[in-house]
Amino acid sequence: LHDKFEAEHALEPETLDGEKISLLLNAGLNLSTEQVSANYCDGVGLYRTESWFMQKGQFPTQSEQEKWYREVLSRYHPGPVVMRTLDIGGDKVLDYFDIKEENPFLGWRGIRVSLDHPEIFLDQIKAMIKANVGLGNLRIMLPMVSRTEEVDEALQLIEQAYFELQDDWADPFLLMDKPEIGVMLEVPSSVYLLSDWADKVDFCSVGSNDLTQYLLAVDRNNSRVAELFDPYHPSVLRVLNHIAITCQEVELSFSLCGELGGEPEGAILLVAMGYRRLSMNISALNKVKWVLRRLRVEDMEMLLNECLAQSSVKQVHRLLRSFMIEHD
Ligand code: PEP
Ligand code: MG
């Protein structure tokens, strides 16, 4: 039963010592329940556009996409909606777009597909920008970037989409907003280019699911190695901490949208690192808020420092367990 968590659903997400934390929703799968939750979150931190593409029999047209995106943007307005461009490949396949590879997680995925098919990418970007007219709560996020060239090319295509739309637009007095553009940090190489990208993009969001998978070389969906897939591995924690430090140094807005942010222990460590925006599945929102409202940042920081000092993943889990028991 989640009654005690639900009882506080309308309260502000903040720590016991008053530090405000933005809790956002990971959306894209179940719209009816997501709609209910719209009141209780600060917006959508990850909208997985490919979920909708996966339910279709063919690529939706630009105007179908525009209609759909407008519905999503309106639903959460005035809260921000971070729409991620198509992230297919890996475990996410479209019946009507054949990708057969021996090693799909290291293959043609995310932004790589979009840049090889600019017509698909441009359609999607144009549909998003048009859907945003009069609303203004759209943000666009690029998945699986691993090289600076990908960021540059994608930004160039977004500019192109914007100018082509301005040219075509029937009513020249209707101004289209240029949305904020961000990148996902989910390939380890992106972490070490972050400060180089700070002037190019407006925000970044950590995809801890893929980042864990690629950092530890453990398939996120393979039950045989499921025990090794562990975002509390000291290396993962140290990388997440490094991202927070770097982003604060270069003044780049940062958040996290992997499953880790929806786990109480994960949220605690992330807040201690300096993350103030966490995006999670609807089922995690109330519980994470409940936990954060009962803790001081100072106590979370003490736990974090102990965890960061460990070299053993088991020891990290021991520390987390005793912290949770102590603060129950
Ligand atoms: C992630 O990789 O952490 C992420 C949020 O994206 P997805 O789970 O859709 O790959
Ligand atoms: Mg991912």
Automatic annotation (TrEMBL):
Native species: Pseudoalteromonas aurantia 208
Coiled-coil zones: none
Gene: ptsP
Subcellular location field: Cytoplasm
Domain of life the protein comes from: Bacteria
Whole-protein residues included: 420 to 747 of 756
Family according to the record: Belongs to the PEP-utilizing enzyme family.
Name used for this protein in its record: phosphoenolpyruvate--protein phosphotransferase
